[in-house]
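re the bet — no i am not wrong, look at it urself. input seq straight from the record:
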Amino acid sequence: MVRLRVLAIAAVIIVTVPPAQAVDTSANAVETEPVTVTGESTDSLISVPPEQSAKQKTQIPGAFTIRTNDDMDLGRASNFQDLLQRVPGVFLQSENGMEVSKVSIRGSGITSEDEPLGVMFLMDGLNFNQADGETVLEDIDIAAINYAEVFRGADAFRYGALTLGGAINLVPFTGYNVAPFQVRLEGGSYGFFRGDMSGGAVQGRFDEYGAISFREREGFRDHSRETTEIFFGDLGYKFNDEVENRFYLTLDRFDRNLPGGLTKSQMEDDPMQANPLAVIQDWNKSLSNVRMADKLSIQTDQIQFSAGAFWYHHDVENRGFFSADFREGIEQFYSDNVGANLHLVSRHQLFGLRNILTIGVSPQYEKEPSENYENIFGHTGATTARGTGISVNLPSYFDDQLYLTQRFSILAGAQAIFAERHFIDEFVTDTEGNQSHRQNFWGFTPKLGAMYEINPKTQAFINFSRTWQPPSFDNMVEFTEDPNSSVVYTPLQPQHAWTIEIGTRGEYSRFQWELSLYRSWVRDELLEINDVFGNDLGARNVPHTIHQGIEAGLEVELFRDILVPKQSNRAGDRVSLEQSYTLNDFHMDGNAIYGDNRLPSIPVHVYEAQLLYQAPSGWYAGPNLQCNFSRYPVDEANTLFADSYVLLGFRAGFRRASGFSVFVDCRNLTNQTYAAAVDVIADARTEEDPEIFHPGDGRSFYGGVSWSW
């Protein structure tokens, strides 16, 4: 731990020494003044600015959202919920009030626990997921992210995504778009403290960025203390205006006590309590990680080619529930992932018409040896399982967008995928015998789309596509719950879906909007189910389910020049209202046991809004809402429900491009008790008072200061 801190601090100091050509920030913290370098452009070719990324809106016939760091910096900037506020179609759950444990797009990943499944995370187009599909979000320093691109559904094909939900591509800061040096400190309720130090510079053909952050929290609930340390840095080199290479380094570690789930009545009586066994057995998760990646990009007017590679190593210990009838206990494992991406975009004409052809391949390999032990009051006991999981993914993809007219284009594309899941059971003396197993999967996922540009800022689109996701080891390798509890491998099939989507996005006068309506016919969805006798079968392929919904976002500038009139050299003040609404209508389709029951874990109606006053001097203030308007089931049988909730917040502060900034961020002002996350089960009637509810934070207050040079 000490060596990690020393290395990270040294790296930040190196990259933040202000050089003669250091950049300076402008009015919105992430925008930069031009840097004059003869013969060189003033932006990265790889980590492009958000304005350039927004041009994709005219090339994606599907739901696509950009969320910048700018809005997050108005308040607490600590986790993915802070970054992805008010993104339609994205639902996040946190089991501990800090980092997100579930990320769902269009119902993906609803059965995942602790580490998100069903959404592909990338950094500058390079995969951040493990090869079996899981993501450790604690490896990502949110404060180092300039913006996030959210691709929903088959739009994620352009990155070789093997998910039903889509992909979230994170674009980090570079030396081109940050202050030479910045310090930010945050503190607040439940012992929360976070500090980060970052900076960057441009020196000739080189640019560099580095950030180190530390987060500590006692926690809203008992036994939920955590500490996180992370260093992130990237180093770019421009050979010329058309060729750039960028290297990335991440070092991090975290240690988190886990308070466990509560029954619904326990949560309502005292949401701050921990599950008693979580304290007795000292439930905990700790991880250390190192990640290195490199990407080369070549860009001309007609061709964009990139080649990237990555490697990362996780070392993890999970201390969890142990009993004679469920012997998972303490799990220790390490995971090595290696992968690459080759990506080509050609803009040569086809039949004399404008055409954009994209092709690529994204191979990845993971090896994960693991061992389980008895949990004896938080200490390791006898070995209960030992095995190695090997995952291989080899997706190749292409799409071609042909402009039949200047405004109307059609798109056709497909993925061809090979995936392997190989489990080697190295503890073959248990009652179930040798559970070693290998499965190979082949997939093919076509898509068709069309887009019409009503005007340069407004598009309407339609698409029809197939998506495909292989099972993870969390789905297939589980401990049985019986007197002879041991590891069992369950062969499962990939889940896949056909989806039709229509929508529009655009700007007009004071309005900005996005709207998508979709329906997915899902086959072999991986869900927790029971058999006809009520016995828990664990994860299984459910033959038919339906995912359909609405994803809507609307930002309106309500008033201008209220107290501060517009002048020739500056804008006036403004009041804006930003809203998002998501309808999640997910249900079984004629299931033999559950009929047309609603799928659990995700609210049906989700609404978020922020009303914000902003003055040109830098002052801002306004309330915000997070609403779940309906109760939703937590089991497949639809017998137990999490209640609806409305969370009221308020943010205010003063922000400048350089120099001093300050904020106050108030959350859950009505101190509402609610379930921030739930653990999906098959049938609550087969368990007496299931402990599956994870309470969200109560009333909380955060404040922070930052200084940029």
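see?? Helices lie at 2-16, 50-53, 69-72, 80-83, 264-269, 276-280, 473-476. told u. also The CA atoms of residues 600 and 634 lie 5 Å apart. so pay up
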